[in-house]
Amino acid sequence: AQTVTQSQPEMSVQEAETVTLSCTYDTSESDYYLFWYKQPPSRQMILVIRQEAYKQQNATENRFSVNFQKAAKSFSLKISDSQLGDAAMYFCAYRSAWANFGNEKLTFGTGTRLTIIP
Amino acid sequence: DAGVIQSPRHEVTEMGQEVTLRCKPISGHDYLFWYRQTMMRGLELLIYFNNNVPIDDSGMPEDRFSAKMPNASFSTLKIQPSEPRDSAVYFCATTGGDNTEAFFGQGTRLTVV
Question: What percentage of residues in chain A have a pLDDT greater than 70?
């Protein structure tokens, strides 16, 4: 079974600075998807960014980018120019790319609570 | 599309009562997931459906929990009888088509007193 580990329960960053959230995962599969979800105090789960394992290029969405290291099974999220609205819980998630029964579910890490310091 | 719609948003009930949580998926999504979120255990997958058929219910904690998807537009998660340790936020999420990510509803915060 796949596992996702987020080793930083809490992080804080000064507004306008850059912060990196860590995520590692364990899988025996070669093709899969990785995600970062944001959960603000409203508790809505919002997709931040997605990475396909077969793509070597790191995904980028505006101020959010990832550092995907497939061999190391590492998938970190970098937030540049941090803003107050970035304060939230961030969850890393894994999903197999194989569309067989049992593979479609998302497996989540335990989350990192990000605080933005004004 | 209005997204995944869950009701109610908040539910407070007394121990021993039956609780039913509802979910309306995004039209065209053929996968539906029920997750539970607690401080202690994080996000746990309880059960998921494909084309209205339960595929994996290994995460359902006890026989007190049951879930149904009678059609493509509606799913329920029922707890009977409820216990204080069932207090959590319950999320419904769906995916399908060309989507790889799951789309979440706003969750139901359940408090059992």
Answer: 96
